[in-house]
Design brief:
single chain, alpha+beta, Metallo-beta-lactamase, Chain A, 5-stranded mixed sheet, 7 helices, 13 strands, about 30% strand, globular, binds zinc ion, metal-binding, hydrolase activity, metal ion binding, MBL fold metallo-hydrolase
Length: about 210
């Protein structure tokens, strides 16, 4: 069985997700932005073995703890897309600008592309490239859970900002409508911030997508 737990972290209340396979007790952290002791306590309390960090994109509130956890736990960093490399290089400036602890530099073990898959224990998740908020933004979709981890692409009642360098509003709308919504109305999702929703709810009622 695949399980998930949302762990809001950092002053931005970013929804880090802990994902684990109860057959193997292997776990992944999606978007560890900060609050490392809290995140690692969630792993240890369940006697899980952290196997990887998966990143949707490289903004500081999503990626700030990545370098330190990868080094101390000896785990690979999977994602985001290579288009986010400039955000990774800018993590020191992002730390300063937003008052975060200095983020440890890292280089992803593997960049992700549209159509890739990631593995956790007996479970496979699909990778969707959804640019617009950042150029290399990816979404992780679990067919087992019928659940997507969408980072800052889509929120309950809102969509991701596109006014940062490299943002593109048309790309974001296209990705939401043609990649995310293709997963189906009954798919639930964890956004980067705020409450969960379903793709159908957002397709029908999100004011930014009418
Ligand atoms: Zn972001």
């Amino acid at each position: 069985m695949l399980h998930r737990l949302t762990l809001p972290c950092t002053a931005f209340e970013q929804n880090c997700s802990l994902l684990w396979c109860s057959d193997t007790n292997e776990a992944a952290l999606i978007d560890p932005g900060g609050d490392i002791p809290m995140l690692m306590a969630a792993v240890q309390q369940r006697a899980l073995t952290l196997k990887a960090i998966w990143l949707t994109h490289a903004h500081i509130d999503h990626a700030g703890a990545t370098g330190t956890i990868a080094r101390t736990e000896g785990v690979p960093i999977i994602g985001p897309g290579q288009g986010d490399d400039y955000w990774i290089q800018a993590l020191p400036q992002q730390s300063q600008m937003f008052g975060f602890p200095q983020a440890e530099h890292f280089t992803p073990t593997q960049w992700l592309n549209q159509g890739d898959t990631v593995q956790l224990g007996a479970h496979t998740l699909q990778v969707l490239h959804c640019p617009g908020h950042t150029p290399g933004h990816v979404v992780f979709y679990s067919p087992d859970l019928k659940h997507a981890f969408v980072g800052d692409v889509l929120f309950a009642g809102s969509i991701g900002r596109t006014d940062f360098p490299g943002g593109n509003h048309a790309d974001l709308i296209h990705a939401i409508k043609h990649r995310l919504f293709a997963l189906g109305d009954d798919v639930t999702f964890t956004p980067g911030h705020g409450p969960e929703s379903t793709l159908g709810e957002e397709r029908l009622y999100n004011p930014y997508l009418r």
